[in-house]
Structures are given as C-alpha cells and as structure tokens.
Amino acid sequence: MDEKRILLVEDDPAQAALFSLELKRRGFLVESETRAAAAAARVEKEIFDAVVTDLRLGAGDGLQVLAAARASQPETGVIVITGHGSIDTAVAAMKAGAFDYLTKPVEPEELALALRKSIEHRDLLGEVRRLRAELKEGLGFSRIVSASAAMRRVLALVAKVAATDATVLVTGESGTGKELVARAIHENSPRRDGSFVALNCGALPEGLLESELFGHVKGSFTGADRNKRGLFEEASGGTLFLDEVTETTPGLQVKLLRALQEGEIRRVGDNHPIKVSARVVAASNRDLRKLVAEGKFREDLYYRLKVFPIEIPPLRERIEDVLPLAESFLKKARVRTGSPGSQFSPDAVRALGAYAWPGNVRELEHAVERALIMAAGPQIEAGDLPPEIAAGVSPAPARKPRRKR
Ligand SMILES: Nc1ncnc2c1ncn2[C@@H]1O[C@H](COP(=O)(O)OP(=O)(O)OP(=O)(O)O)[C@@H](O)[C@H]1O
Ligand SMILES: [Mg+2]
Questions:
Q1: 141-313 in CATH: which number?
Q2: Domain 316-390, CATH 1.10.630.10 — does that match?
Q3: What tens digit of pLDDT does each residue of 146-205 get?
Q4: What is the average pLDDT across 87-116?
Q5: For the segment 391-405, what is each residue's pLDDT rounded down to a tens digit?
Q6: Do the beta carbons of residue 141 and residue 183 sit within 8 Å?
Q7: Domain spans of the chain, in order of start
C-alpha cells in the first residue's frame, strides 16, 4: 500500500509530537504545521491524502485551514479537533465541510481511524465518478467472445500476464477489442479491487494530458484554480490504461518513461516526487516499430512498454469469431431493448461471414444493432444488414456480385 500523506496542524508541541509519532507508527507520512496561515498556504500548494487540524490555533483557527483545503482540494477530507464540550464549533466545522470532528482528549487510534475513513471516502468518490462515467459511455463488463484459436491464444496471454505487474502493450487495428483486453487484464489481476482508469492520449493537447496524468498544483498554469491529483495517482493499486499511446509528444514520452522506470511522478508545478504504483497497460492501433524507425516514437519508451506485447488479430483473420460475436451482440441488444427472440437467416449468416470487416468487432456490433432495428419480423435478413455487408449475398442489379468487400 502507498503511504498516505497527512497534514497535521496543531500548535501544542507536546500534542503535535504525540500525534505525529503515533500516526507514523501506523504507517502515515506526517507533515506538521503549527500555524493556521502556514497550513492554509500549504494546502493551497500541495496535495495531502487527508488533513487534521486543531480548531484553536494561537493566532488563527482551524476553520481557516478547512476553508483553504475545501477550496483547493475539495476531495481531501479534513478532520477537525475541537475542545471539550464545544458543540457549536463542531457544528460550524461540519457545516463548513469538515469530514469529521473529534473532541478532546483525542486518542491516537481514534484519529488514525478517522483519517483512514476519510481517505476511503475520497477513494470511493473517485470510484463512483469513474463508474458513472463508464455507465454513461455504455462500456459495461461484457465477456470476451473467443471461438478462434487466435483469440484463445490472446486470452491465454491475458491470463498469464494478469497475475503479474508487468507493463503490457496491446496492439491491433481499430475496433479489435484492445480496451476490452486491457479491462480483462485488470479484472483478472490481483489489482481487480483497485481502479481501472482509462485515458485516451490522442484526445488531449500535451499540457492538458500532462496534468491529467500527473496532476497539478494550484496556480501552475492559467485555469489551474485548485490542486488536482493525476490519473497515475488515482490508479495507484489499480491499472492505468493508456490508449493511443503513440499520440503523445516527445516531451511527454520522456515523462512517461520516467514514471514507468522509477515509479515516481511529479505534479505540474511541483518538484516534490510522488511514488505511484499503477500498473500500466498501453494500447495502439499503429505500427510502433515503424514509428520508432521514423523517429516519431521514443525507442526507449517502446521497449519499456512492450515488456509483454499482446497483438489482437483483425477480425478478417479469425472469421470463426464472426458468428459467435454476432449472436452475442444480438442477445445483448435483445436484453437491452426487451425485444423478443430473433435470429439470423441463412443468407444473413452468409453475408456476415463473407464480409471483410475493416472496422472489426466494433463494426460488427453496430451492424447487428442496426439490423435488429431494421428487421420486420423475428428473422434478420441479409437485406437488414448495412448495404456494404448485404452486398456480399444479394447482388444488386446490373452489377457483378462481389465476393468480398
Ligand atoms: N472478443 C470480443 N468479444 C466481445 N466483444 C468484443 C470483442 N472484441 C471487441 N468487442 C467489442 O467491440 C467494441 C470495440 O472494442 P474496443 O473498444 O475494445 O476496441 P479497440 O481495439 O479499443 O478499438 P479502438 O482502437 O477503435 O479504440 C466494444 O464494444 C467491445 O466490447
Ligand atoms: Mg479503444
């Protein structure tokens, strides 16, 4: 497990020393501050896994620290320690967004428990956010259909590598199932209870990509109005899926290499190195060797990524998968739409088998969905399939029948 970094704000030196010692013994990394203003300045610049502050602090007070933390790192839980019998201040602290409050005298074990709870809460919030996003994208956890020997070989590799922490490079044409394979690796790994965090490297410009991956501190660039943890940190203990990894700039490739080699990252605007323990699965639909030869992708990163390569063959090279995939998509669509049983006609089956599937499994999935909508009766006819696929069996007049594509 990673060490959790705690900011302890306490002006009584004896109390601070005791908490610090006891929390360190329980595996926390403790940073101490004695004054509210200094502590507030730190939560604005650095990221902590949790903050604990005494309410009464000589010159200032703990609410100031709380407000600064809420503003600059809203996901970080703040625990407030109040004096004995001061219910009003405890209520005020909770209203201002404290995760919890403890009343003096505070036992170290009680404090450690509250800190663990607040960190767990933050992690769950992140998990919920990701799952919601996944549901929206309709990703789900569909099973991998594998009737062909080629696909069974892929799954055997998945099973082997899942047990390890090795970096995996998944390659294959667009729509062949790279992301599905990456998820399967995660779900079959000892990290399955951690997060699976996916990022499409081709979708963001360099600066944004860097801050997504590594996080940033407030003020590090225009618009950075709060501290943010990066995906490498969010995926600690889980799996980070770097899709379209070739779409990164040389500058970012250097940083990725360092993160992979040293297990350390630096947030944008912060020199403090942070240990991360995300397992990385990268994917690409491009010919990496060629990109390396052309000087468009760093050779050292290439070798670092392809510790364990998995290549998914295009669908046209494993036609045995076409029908089982089509059947499974049909079943899925029926479950989703609640429509009654339908099946492919012999002609439709032939059309599916004769087509070359340049868009691979994704194209097949869409074709089936469309056909189900088009079908007039319980049977899906060849003519219900998209025209370029149906053309394989129903020759258009005045044109020679096309055998493949
Ligand atoms: N073997 C399979 N069994 C079941 N579904 C599959 C299989 N392969 C792919 N799919 C489905 O096909 C669709 C495309 O797969 P995925 O997104 O993993 O492809 P990809 O290789 O990442 O594509 P791209 O390069 O375009 O990002 C998804 O809906 C996925 O669930
Ligand atoms: Mg993909």
A1: 3.40.50.300
A2: no
A3: 999 999 999 999 999 999 999 999 999 999 999 999 999 999 999 988 999 999 999 999
A4: 93
A5: 877 554 444 445 544
A6: yes
A7: 4-119, 141-313, 316-390
User: What angle in degrees, to the nearest 10, is found between the helix axes of 87-95 and 62-72?
Assistant: 10
Residue-wise pLDDT for 307-357, tens only, equals: 999 999 999 999 999 999 999 999 888 777 766 668 999 999 999 999 999
| Record: fold of 4-119 | Rossmann fold (3.40.50)
Q: Global pTM?
A: 0.73
Fold agreement (141-313, 316-390)? no
Per-residue DSSP letters for 83-138? -TT-HHHHHHHHHTT-SEEEESSPPHHHHHHHHHHHHHHHHHHHHHHHHHHHHHHT
Residue whose tokens read 């994704």 = 362
Report residues whose beta carbon is within 6 angstroms of any ligand 1 atom. 142, 144-146, 172, 174-180, 285, 325, 361-362, 365
Nearest CA to ligand 1 atom 26: 174
Cα 361 to ligand 1 centroid, rounded to whole Å: 6
* Helix then strand then coil, % of the chain, to nearest 5: 50, 15, 35
Cα separation of 241 and 65, whole Å?
Answer: 36
- Cα of 180 vs centre of ligand 1, distance in Å, is 6
